[in-house]
Amino acid sequence: MSLVVENLIIDHGAIRAINAVSFNVPTGKLTAVIGANGAGKTTLLRGLSGLKEIKSGKATWNGESIVGQKAENLARAGIMHVSDGKSVIAELTVRENLALTGLWRKDKKDVAAATEEVISLFPILGERMSQSGGSLSGGERQMLAIGRALIARPQLLLLDEPSLGLAPLIVDQIFTSIKKFVTTMNLTVVLVEQNAMGALAIADEGVVLNLGRVVGVDSAENLLNDPAVRAAYLGY
Amino acid sequence: MIKFITAILTALTTGAIYALMSTALVLVWRSTRIINFAQAGQAVLSTYIGYEITVRSESFWVGVLGAMVFGALLGAVIDRFFMRPIFKRIKSGPILMIAPVVATLGLLGIIQSVIGFKWGLTYQSLTAPVSTDGYTLFGRVIAFSPFNLLVVVFATASMLILTLLFQKTNIGLALRASAHSPEIARLSGIKVDLIRTLGWALAGAAGGLAGMLYIPSSYLYPNAMDVLLVFGFVAAVIGGLESLFGAVAGAMILGFAISFATSYVSEKLVFPMAFIMLIVVLLIKPAGLFSGKKSRRD
Lengths: 236, 298
Known about the structure:
The structure holds two protein chains of two kinds.
Chain A: E1 2-12, E2 15-26, E3 30-34, H1 41-48, E4 56-61, E5 64-65, H2 71-76, E6 79-82, H3 94-99, H4 108-121, H5 123-127, H6 138-151, E7 156-160, H7 168-185, E8 188-193, H8 196-202, E9 205-210, E10 213-219, H9 220-225, H10 227-234
Parallel strand pairs in A: 3-8, 3-9, 6-7, 7-8
Antiparallel strand pairs in A: 1-2, 1-4, 4-5, 9-10
Helix pairs in contact in A: 4-6
Chain B: H1 2-32, H2 39-57, H3 60-89, H4 95-119, E1 136-137, E2 140-141, H5 146-168, H6 170-180, H7 182-187, H8 192-214, H9 226-238, H10 244-264, H11 270-284
Antiparallel strand pairs in B: 1-2
């Protein structure tokens, strides 16, 4: 019962963006995938969520293959991908943005309950319900994107660089809330980050990606203390 | 004075028909980024079906319903079995820009040829359900009939229904989300392909209605709607292509410009006026008059 990736290969045009990548993400744990710009982190997540074609290799969630499936079907099956940057529809209001993941869910009572939970997790969203998504600050957009994913009651959450372009104080706030809902909602999370320090600080496990290959897999704690990782990704 | 009132009433009638066509074009553009030149063919074929149903059922209204249902089905079939397979093969490159244009133009030719085979290249007339004789105003007959009034009422009602659908329903939210950001919509679990097909179906129904409302004032022949495609396209571009509000506003602006130019300057100004409007708008605001985020209230 976990996400298992084996020998995954994904091409990005003529470039082999993900080259024979293998790792496991244990259920209920937060796994950080760290690496420099261009390491293939975003491509990896896009492959896992069905947005990008997987050339070869295996990827299974709870024993079932997720290779070749449509993104919308994976989303309905509980794999929610919060894509990088501004994963918010600017033309829709905050309320409408949040409603998207509840549209297809049968249990409307639970959709309402999940929406309440998201608003108590990110109270600022509750104050902005009728504003357009485009009027939000970067941090608020990130909260909205994560909140929208949570309303689907996902089992596996794929987060792409939630800290991108945000002020340090907001990054702390977002990481703290991620840590909080991972424990309270019993989620499995893959957190892709360039901000290796912040990501490893809240993660249980870590995967280090370099030029499309896995160069390190260990507990987040060990990676934080690994001199090579520190020199390459943590900057000290 | 009568000339002025007539010009306004004519503008409303023609604007209402243009609005249906521009709405059809905008619905397809928003959902699939295709300018659907086949819209003229789809609309006229739907009108032929509506005409046949009207003749058999002896009811114009059953004919309208039939034209709209057929138009919706035809639109859905074209997207599902024609457009979607094309775009599955072409992912990027210059051909991606050209393919939809060629495909929809080709489709227009195919549909019009099929009509030619089935109904011949003759003119048929569709009788209006109410009088097409102009009302009398201050003792003079004006160029605005009970049927024209009906056209305005029907077009307005269908716009209101469409707006409610888009703004107040879950389907409408899915349509808007898929139009603005297909990727985020997909990641949220929305079946974007299905929603796109629905956009084509709604456009097809609007085209069928436009045909049934326009043809009684003209004749039914394979190219009967080509002119309306041009006006609908100009109206959609004036409105910025993105919003339903823009499509209707663009159509009304065009309707008024043409009506006043033809009644006060020259009858010959119908086409020149449309293109003058298009060029002026493209020079002043290339993205269309209603493309700004603030006026995007579709």
